[in-house]
Amino acid sequence: MDKLQEIISDLSLRHFVSKDELKTFDVNSGPCYIIEESYVKDIIIGFMKEQQAIIEENKLQQKVTVHQFRQAQEEIQRLSKENGRFRKALRQFADMKYMALSAEYIIHRYSEYARKLLEGGGLEGR
């Protein structure tokens, strides 16, 4: 079955056509409706055009979404690099603070040692 026949079999004509546009044809099994073939083709073509418009809109939305996703990825990469630079700077700052505290501690210890030496305490404390 080709695609057109598949679409035709899937369509519910009652969805597209009002009761007034259908001609009643009474058969033994009950009422049936006859529609001109050209009218059915027009309905199917209209349906296919609507489907094509929906497909095009979906493609456009997909392109926009892909573009936004790529922008978000680039932003994440940029922020990750920036975060790395901030972490490095923070480590350097922490190291400098530690070194400054260490220097102050060393100066303080040597000052105490020098004071003890001057007071005659000698090298026993060391």
Textual characterization of the structure:
By secondary structure, the protein is mostly helical. The chain has one domain (3-92). It has helices at residues 3-10, 13-16, 37-119, and strands at 23-27, 30-34. It has a two-stranded antiparallel ribbon. A hairpin with a 2-residue loop joins strand 1 (23-27) and strand 2. The protein is rod-shaped, with a radius of gyration of 43 Å. The relative contact order is 0.05. Keywords: Plasmid.
SSE diagram, text form:
Layout: H1 3-10, H2 13-16, E1 23-27, E2 30-34, H3 37-119
Antiparallel strand pairs: 1-2
Keywords:
126 residues; mainly alpha; two-stranded antiparallel sheet; 8% strand
- β-strand number: 2
User: Helical stretch count?
Assistant: 3
Strand order of the largest sheet: 1-2
Q: What is the C-alpha radius of gyration, as a whole number of Å?
A: 43 Å
Strand content: 5-15%
Question: What is the element string, with H for helices and E for strands?
Answer: HHEEH
Tell me the number of structural domains: 1
Which geometry do the CA atoms define?
Answer: rod-shaped
Summed over residues and divided by their number, the pLDDT gives a mean of 75
- The secondary-structure class comes to mainly alpha
Uncertain residue ranges: none
Q: First CA to last CA: what distance?
A: 100 Å
Tell me the major beta sheet. Answer: 2 strands, antiparallel
Helix percent reads: over 70%
Keywords: Plasmid
